[in-house]
Amino acid sequence: AVEEAQRAINAAHVEAESVENGIGLVKLMGRDSGFIAMYATLANRDVDCCLIPESPFYLEGPGGLFEFIEKRLRDSGHMVIVIAEGAGESLEERDASGNKLFKDVGLWMSHKIREHFANQKKTITLKYIDPTYMIRAIPANASDNVYCTILAQSAIHGAMAGYTGFTVGPVNGRHCYIPFYRITASQNKVVITDRMWARLLSSTNQPSFMNH
Description:
By secondary structure, the protein is α/β, with parallel strands linked by helices. The protein folds into two domains: 2-137 and 189-211, Rossmann fold, CATH 3.40.50.460; 142-184, no CATH class. 42% of the residues lie in helices and 16% in strands. It has eight helices and six strands. It has helices at 2-17, 35-42, 65-76, 105-119, 132-136, 142-160, 180-184, 195-204, and strands at 22-28, 49-51, 78-84, 125-129, 166-171, 174-179. A hairpin with a 2-residue loop joins strand 5 and strand 6 (174-179). Helix 1 (2-17) crosses helix 2. Pfam families: PFK (PF00365). Its EC number is 2.7.1.11. Residues 1-157 form the Phosphofructokinase domain. One of its GO terms (molecular function) is metal ion binding. It is an enzyme of class 2 (transferase).
């Protein structure tokens, strides 16, 4: 998924740098966690800002996203933004019951950016790319095929041995039987205090919006 996402990011960069004040916006999978967006950004040196669900951000005001976009356009003349589909949930609208109204965050962000610069009387060219189905449809590589074969064979062995309510996964370098309740007990999230996220901030030079 990360490798295929590079093609979308490269296309967004080409489109953005081809015009004055060009912005390339790429939405990647990740409603609850931003691993794909983070690793795709780290693997590509053309991304200027990465937005994921684990790292809250805001749009308006000092230190906000719009201020950073304006600065990057002044300095470079173009910008590439990668956004995970679950980013900015705190900014999204809610219904009368307080439930989140899930919408395409890429289209929503595109509208907000265009609206902001229209109010500023500034001309921009924004290209929005959503490669979700392209990424989902790529064929498995040899490594994935071997891994899935091991998982399938291990699951059959476990079922034939009489085990139920389990799945198979790697634990400390070995494939083990893991109870469902252990899998669903927690969710894997990007730790924004970890070095990997710090590497991303260093790569993109984007601010940590939480510090403002």
